């Protein structure tokens, strides 16, 4: 019996193909296999020997079966490994790009501001780009002949009454008129605006403003300052400092210019901030009582602040762009990089 | 430009560090862009104690100069250098204008330790022939040797260059106005200059009459002086005009300018003998002509204001005087005008004449009547003192100006509430006193009278709050957030729909673009699939930006070209923008352009190429997402700019909402696919989402193929199948379209896979077969079609 097991082991060691394994199995455990044949010897044995022989024979069968199974597993594993090895690829080759569109670069910054301000309860609204002179200027405390109108060289469409809006402030007027002097207002109105400027690195006849308006019963310039802080830090990082400077706009009183510390030189002074350490990013102020009155809000009851950013200017500062025309050229090599979440 | 040396006449700032003061003023809102200090180191008063000719030169002198604590040798080329003269000496280390540094040197072998200077070499006088001829500056004999020369000449002035916001650019650009600004910052008082006049016993009314016929001149004053002696100006006037950047002409002209820079009120001097005995202020006549002081003939419009002698113009009011009444060296009698003109009118006149004078700039900004009379008195005083003039009694006056004082009434808490600060009533009083704003206080109410000089302040509490706020200091405001109820912010109106579609398109792989609303007439003509006319700008900047577009597709083609030139191959872009037609109706549009591969991996051949069906898929994806499933169709239709066989109208509820197709090869040979649809059409109510349970019972799937005419659309077949299939037909899709062998040339085969199921039971083979046969019957009956392989 021991010899048989040794022979089996030898046979298995020399095996080459899976097919051979079946032959060996037949040779030992088949109907006429050598181990099967041993069982026929049992009848010739004495009764006391029969028991031991039977036990040994069963043990032999089990061991032989185990050896065969093990060998089979080994062979299967080898085959599989070989197959897997053949299938292995160069994982460094380029991926199949999943197409995802990028936002226009200026729209990216607009969305950043929108998301922040919506989380602070501001609605996002827009209005017509062909606007009445009345809403674009007159109700904003800019009567005809006001010198501040000169600074906004406007595209008139029909006489002196219809124009391409030179600012998004008329959307504020429309929102206030809808509020009928009764509803508090919290809104921003990012949108396209138009002025008679020749397009160059720092001018564009079409550009985007992001204006905001908050009207409620008890709103102060300090609240505007706090709000500006939140926006500035959201866009330019927690270490961004802010400052207010007195300014003048016909539709706000008091008026301020809002500056951020220069993120490029951290306030030390560089060409970007013209060596002042500060960059003006917004004009703002408390809504002028005349504007409130024009829109049906009683200045004795209601107060509010308004602010305005140039969207392209924000994007230029944040992303390090030095030419306004970039936003309207839509060079996909440039804009594709903007399909990603902002850094924390 | 403000001279601080000049301002000192009206307010005591002798102890102030002027750099620091500039910072304080800027912080309070008047932006000082530049502080210019006339300071030159190593510039002293010296005395020439020996002067000999240079042995090697015919014009150089070797001078020994006492500079206080020592005597030094300097070579000087000026003709007027001589022994005993007090001079200005630039010693080694001095840096003269133009970055010219004085160094020790040898001139033709002789040591020279500095330079004896002329005023123009120090940048204190214009470089003119007269200045060159005068040579080095000769100082008075009592000039103290060794003293800082600029200090001795009182030229160690500090100048502020201002960049002031519009509302303050009238009162901050003259020296008295600026003194008031300093006064409120430093909490000091302003003293106005004295102007006593010894009038002679003759009245102006004996010589002169005035009539004003235009409403654009509400205030006109005139005084008359005689016996004027035209000559050079006194030093202080010359110096101050120089500092401002104005050239001294003569005492009379200089005094007019001097008073203007002092009080902000432009004056005009007429030669009385040339003028005659009358002034009539009226609107100009159209095409009326006048030769102004600069010798140019000007043609006026009826919107201009003119000063006339009763018949002919003698001055374009508020802009420039006429040559015919100009003050000359021989002038003896002068009529002085001090007036207020309508600012808008002056701005328009200056613009159409292209004539920006000192006067027109000031009138254009708006002028207060506060100093109109004071300025004329001051001018008389100075003419009397420095031009020997005799002033006639009386003043000729036209006065229609509204002098009702502007007042505003408020409580301290209103200021606090606007600024978000807490200052007491006492603090408010202090601030108002600093501003020199007269006020009354009673029972918690302040009533402030706004000074006339501050045209920018209106009768409301916000304007007062601004003044208080800027003195309080905006840097002292503590940041807070508005105390408003919590609510969610949301995209409203069309913005909401734009955002939904925009984000969807981006996630479908299209890149957002932003292009110009204004376009050229040629571009505006392309892709006009609607019955819309274009709005055209009446005064465009250029023809290529003169029309408002009604479709965005041409703009996207521009972006395509731009990127193609930069070697981009796969271009997938969109834009959502508002458009306007001739009636100014607004419509937001979604435009898409696709070209190249949608997905590509070149090395392994993975590729989805853009074709009509892909861009159609994008459109359907948007429409399904927006809730319009089963409400839209594509109907074959075309435009001149689209491929006639590969183009369609996009229909929603049987109305056209857009176009789709391949760009016509005659417009662009590349395989470009475009689509545009109305976003407004998608801004309608859609049904809410509802859960629909998938059937628990087995589905039966059966295929059928029809051979139809080539021009038959799949939609036509599908619609018949759907109607005939009824309730049990739950899904249908095309799985094969075939032309070629076994199908005639003008025919095609379309194969459909049909799914039958019921929500509540298992269908029997018999009933499905019945429906199936009914479908075939219907299709074959209703259109020219036959079942394939029958």
Gyration radius over CA of chain B: 43 Å
The rounded distance between the terminal residues' Cα atoms of chain A is: 76 Å
Largest sheet of chain A: 8 strands, mixed
Average of the residue pLDDT scores of chain B: 92
Which structural class matches the secondary elements of chain A? alpha+beta
The CATH class of the largest domain in chain B is identified as Alpha Beta
Poorly predicted runs of chain A:
none
Explain how this protein is built.
The complex is a heterodimer of chains A (344) and B (790). Chain A has 2 domains: 2-87; 105-338, BirA Bifunctional Protein, domain 2 (2-Layer Sandwich), CATH 3.30.930. In chain A, α1 (2-14) packs parallel to α4 (47-87), α2 (18-29) packs antiparallel against α4 and α3 runs antiparallel to α4 (47-87). In chain A, 42% of the residues lie in helices and 19% in strands. By secondary structure, chain A is an alpha+beta fold. Chain A is rod-shaped. Chain B is an alpha+beta fold and 790 residues long. Chain B has 6 domains: 2-38 and 157-182, Phenylalanyl-tRNA Synthetase, Chain B, domain 1; 43-152, OB fold (Dihydrolipoamide Acetyltransferase, E2P); 200-399, Phenylalanyl-tRNA Synthetase, Chain B, domain 3 (3-Layer(bba) Sandwich), CATH 3.50.40.10; 406-472, Phenylalanyl-tRNA Synthetase, Chain B, domain 1; 494-682, Bira Bifunctional Protein, Domain 2 (BirA Bifunctional Protein, domain 2, 2-Layer Sandwich); 700-787, Alpha-Beta Plaits (2-Layer Sandwich), CATH 3.30.70.380. Helix content of chain B is 26%, strand content 29%. Chain B is elongated. Chain B starts with a strand and ends with a strand. The mean pLDDT of chain B is 92. Chains A and B meet through α5, β1, β3, β7 and α9 of A and α9, α12, α14, α15 and β29 of B.
